Amino acid sequence: MKLSLELKGIILGTVSGLAAIGIAFAAGEIFQPRPTRASGATEELVIPPTGTPVNQGYELFMLNCAHCHGTDARGDEGPDLHGVTKSDQRIVSIIQNGIKGEMPKFSGKLNDSETRALVAFIRTLKAPHEMPHGQRRNQ
Ligand code: HEC
């Protein structure tokens, strides 16, 4: 049957076309040199190991928050997020609901686990006085 052969040809063509696109994408992922440090970040912000929730939080921070809080989270338009004293629940609420006139809400954009990953990341940002003894002053 001529028609079905043609159809098969179209299907095969489409499938291999999609596969080629897929391979191109995968190759791009592999060969693209991953930036180890976002531009503008200072030496201080340590990038958490990939695959950890904290790293997910870091990535989300860079995408959603860094343009206000700074790529080093040291503050820009928004405040420095090192050593935030608010409770986890309070931070979750700030991220979800925003701060009227100051910070947008992210409830429609970030799900619960993403919000928790962000909190985990923020918790790694220590104020100098939270550093373990010895790192802060010689005793
Ligand atoms: C449009 C700029 C903007 C963006 C985007 C933004 N923020 Fe904010 N954020 C602010 C400002 C401004 C404040 C301070 C508001 C105030 O204190 O009244 C703030 C406050 C906060 C606070 C409270 C800090 C404290 O010590 O009280 C946290 C936590 C926070 N932001 C986290 C985030 C996270 C996480 C994101 C990304 C998901 C984010 N922000 C995105 C502007 C922004």
Question: How would you characterize this protein structure?
Answer:
This protein has about 140 residues and is mainly alpha-helical. It folds into 2 domains: about 1-30; about 55-130, Cytochrome c-like domain (Cytochrome Bc1 Complex, Chain D, domain 2). The protein is built from 5 helices and no strands. The protein has helices spanning about 1-30, 55-65, 65-70, 90-95, 110-125. The protein is elongated, with a radius of gyration of 22 Å. The protein starts with a helix and ends in a 16-residue tail after the last helix. Heme C binds near residues 68, 77, 79, 84 and 95.
Notable traits:
2 domains, elongated, binds heme C, mainly alpha, 139 residues, Cytochrome Bc1 Complex, Chain D, domain 2
> Under the CATH scheme, which class of the largest domain?
Mainly Alpha
Bound molecules: heme C
Q: Proportion of β residues?
A: under 5%
Helix content range: 40-55%
Ranges where pLDDT stays below 50 over 5 or more residues in a row are 33-43
Oligomer: single chain
CATH architecture of the largest domain: Orthogonal Bundle
Find the structural class using helix and strand composition. mainly alpha
Shape: elongated
Q: SSE order, as H and E? A: HHHHH
Number of H/I helices: 5
- What's the total number of strands? 0
